[in-house]
Write a structure and sequence with these properties.
Elements: E1 2-3, H1 5-15, E2 19-22, H2 27-40, E3 44-46, H3 58-71, E4 76-83, H4 86-95, E5 99-102, H5 109-125, E6 129-134, H6 140-145, H7 159-169, E7 173-176, H8 193-202, E8 206-209, H9 217-225, E9 228-233, H10 235-248, H11 257-279
Parallel strand pairs: 1-4, 2-9, 3-4, 4-5, 5-6, 6-7, 7-8, 8-9
Length: 286
């Protein structure tokens, strides 16, 4: 069942769990996540990130993923992650996406809010949800270049800006920064849960966390308790495929590519199921 993001987040807020937002840049990844969601009877977010366009062109795979979502036995949102240009966001809309992240956080607060407002006005008119970002999300490359001297608090979302951003833009969800890093592999993330409390107090808008891979499960559960409604996942699920393939490689005989795909898909499905279970925060999906 294909739905927009607001539909999923409203339900998550009512029942105090977080929806898992999986980046699925290939059909194998998409199938793995959808099978996991159906086995868990849980709502889920799938979709592309503009960063991975070369691996899964949105104009070609978007309509296929939209059809897969429509045929799913659970509510599925097809979401564009980190859309950084109006042109690409419109490609997602035309491809059948039901939600877009309009990420113009590299610009001034005023310009970011102005562009997101424009996106929200158009997208809402055709039933599509919009996610924005206040603050900045550091990535692994930034951490490595800083040689361990990166001060994550410099990237934290300012609570004083949240209410004004939502009032200006009318966005359905807001990504906030309070201690995570995209593609976390080089340092252990430590969430500033007190800062998250301040962010939650600043607005009743659905809050989103990116960069969850590597975060301790108990910290994730606490973050959900403090008000997160969507948590994005990619590194954990995607890298699970590598470990499974390495374990399956044998000098006795070569693996056919379709066998490698099956091994990878099963590993990703199990990783997705673990994530969905964790983010359910004890809620039992009906």
């Amino acid at each position: 069942m294909l739905v927009n993001l607001k539909t999923l987040l409203d339900e998550a807020q009512r029942n105090h769990y977080a929806v898992a937002g999986f980046t699925t840049p290939t059909l194998d990844t998409c199938e793995a996540v959808l099978e996991a969601a159906e086995e868990m009877n849980a709502p889920v977010v799938i979709g592309q990130a503009q960063l991975y366009e070369e691996f899964g062109p949105i104009e070609r795979l978007g309509p296929v993923m939209a059809q897969m979502a429509r045929e799913a036995k659970v509510p599925v949102c097809l979401h564009l992650d980190h859309g950084t240009s109006i042109d690409y966001i419109m490609k997602a809309v035309k491809a059948g996406y039901t939600s877009v992240m309009a990420d113009f956080s590299d610009r001034s607060f005023e310009e970011n809010a102005s562009i997101v407002k424009m996106c929200a006005e158009f997208c809402h008119s055709i039933g599509i949800s919009v996610e924005g970002l206040v603050g900045r999300m550091p990535n692994v490359e930034m951490v490595e270049k800083a040689a361990g001297n990166l001060e994550l608090k410099e990237f934290f979302t300012n609570p004083e800006e949240i209410g004004r951003f939502i009032e200006i833009t009318g966005a359905d969800a807001l990504t906030v920064s309070f201690g995570t890093v995209h593609g976390m592999t080089v340092m252990e993330p430590v969430l500033d849960l007190e800062h998250l409390k301040r962010l939650r107090k600043a607005s009743d808008c659905a809050l989103v966390m990116h960069g969850s891979s590597g975060v301790e499960p108990e910290q994730l559960k606490m973050a959900i308790t403090y008000g997160l409604s969507k948590i994005n996942v990619y590194t954990k699920v995607s890298t699970s495929a590598q470990r499974a393939i390495v374990e399956a490689v044998s000098p006795e005989r070569p693996l056919y590519y379709h066998e490698i795909e099956k091994i990878a898909k099963e590993a990703m499905k199990e990783a997705a199921k673990e994530t969905i279970q964790l983010l359910s925060n004890g809620y039992v999906f009906g």
